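Forwarding the complex inputs:
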Amino acid sequence: MTNNIVEIDNLSFGYKGRLLHKGINMVFPRGKVVAIMGGSGSGKTTLLRLIGGQIKPSKGEVRVHGDVVHKQDRDGIFKLRRKMGMLFQQGALFTDLSVYENVAFPMRELTDLPDSMIHDLVLMKLNAVGLRGAHTLMPAELSGGMARRVALARAIALDPAIMMYDEPFAGLDPISMGVICSLIRSLNDALGATSIIVSHDVKETFLIADYVYFVANGVVTAEGTPDDLMKSTLPFVHQFVHGDKDGPVPFHYPAGNYQAELMKQK
Amino acid sequence: MTKSNPLVSIIKTLQGIGHRMVERIWRLGAGARLFFLTIVYSGESFKRFHLTMREIYSTGVMSLLIIIVSAFFVGMVLALQGYNTLQKYGSSEAIGVLVSLSLVRELGPVVTALLFAGRAGTAITAEIGLMKTTEQLSAMEMMAVNPIARVVAPRFWAGVISMPILATLFSMVGILGGYIVAVPLIGVDEGAFWSQMQASVDFQSDIVNGIIKSLVFGVACTMIALFEGFDAPPTAEGVSRATTRTVVISSLTVLGLDFVLTSFMLVI
Amino acid sequence: MDRTKIDLWVGIFVALGVAALLGLAMKVGNLTSGKIGETYSVTAAFENVGSLKPHAPVKSAGVAVGRVDSIAFNSKTYEAIVTIKIDKRYNFPKDTFANIYTAGLLGEQYVGLEAGGDEDVLKNGDKIAKTQDAVVLEKMISQFLFSKASETDKDAKSSTSTSASEVKPAGAKSTELGDAPF
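Prediction (whole assembly, three chains):
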């Protein structure tokens, strides 16, 4: 019996003849925080969409709890998404609903819980992220960090078994970043869930991840624990982890001969 | 060398036109598909009617001001212009007929639809486009909530319900505006104004046809606004362009449909 | 935006719409004097119906009493058969005249019923025996020109009576012209 909650098996995916993923293999064990890292445009967010069943792979499959995602019918996808919680990059709070209404949304839409119970649950979730006092505010009145935390409370509303984070640290101030960082870890452990983080923030991610996959050019170029990767001598990993200006990802965009182009100007 | 250049540019132009034509037809198909899905997933709009009520407020009630004010002015101008021409033939008492028939048959449904497209249509497109851009629709999907059932369908039914109400209001307020100019201001006989009108306006062929027109326009304008928002590229520029497209396409569609409907109605 | 406020405003909105619709129906349209009622059908044969159309009004003494239902062609008698629906409230004697008149100088044509003196009344499916055709403009004009021409002839040949026979028909026709009902 496998302990992997999510498995990505030889996945290929592409748009209009261009393959974004060319044979990806990943496993996400129960109770662990696993990070997917890579440069911009390497298809990290797309992997989350593939796991959530929003798009179908061209080849290979994604399995959640043993079920192949893209073979599910409407009911199957529904049950699948009930087990997942996703934190979107900009929070994606519903702008016409208050903080309370936002967190209550999944409970109201997907369960038949009475209002009194929803009330208690919402306040509990908001308390877990430290924003119980803000439950009457509208999303427009929240700062970026606060909005992100409310979105997190909404994502854990139904105690999901799988939590997915799309660039959770992007654009946050150091304090908010620290808050989110510790929340991801503590919530994962409290819920007994499996967390998948897509990020390119090396410092924060390495603090909380148990395992990291590096994606570049459509394949997994490297994988391991954060310690392993810090010590890695693979050129791509080294450049990424230490933020080197030049390396396998070049500084210069492909161009012609410098001197020749300058001469042409005259 | 120079011979191939004009030929190449002609071929490129033709390719461009062909590509644009195909794209338009594709869009039409995508729009039809969204329309079909909206109808299929409409159950929730009625089971949880407060969702639809909210949208009736946004599209219908918020448009009341512009509809009523415009109707008033249109009615008044109709009376003025109408009187100006009619009195040359000594038929100034027919002004009630002129104002009421113009409004009930044509101006009521059509002008209301154009104003609706401008005010409510753009609001719908911008709202949905923004929801798409900030990934709210994706978030809903990931929470196993159908965005078409939750966001698109209530707005569709709200538009279809609001439009005939607004058009009827437009006609009535316009006639009142025409009355105010014709009777107290110009001095046309009050009795003649109303009695000639009653003799010429047929409930079935004029008023009911006007309502049928406004229903059709409601479906068209709301669907166009919803589709443009749903399909907009998820960027700020994409959304703003989509709102412009809503107004342009809605207006052209309304005027075209008006011609088709009027020809049907005059024959039958 | 709480629900009670929305409910209130939507209610007002719909109420305004209904009020406008009622206003239009009552004040503007002719719903109150509608022809919603039971009717019975009778037919009438005409040699020429002019530009009479279905749904044209049927009037008696200037008051609308029914509508033209359909107009058919009888290929045996080469006549037009007009079926009209009359409101059940009104009974017409069996010797009623059915004429085709024109409303206004160049207006729509309608069927006018002139009651006769018979005691029996028309029932559903009966045929009106006495009819008068529509006035066709071209015929009128040619009659007028013809009568004008023969009048000048008459003046020129006032001494002789050889053209008397030619004059009479023209003269008779011109009196008819004077009786033309418009």
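Residues 163-182 of chain C have pLDDT under 50 and may be disordered.
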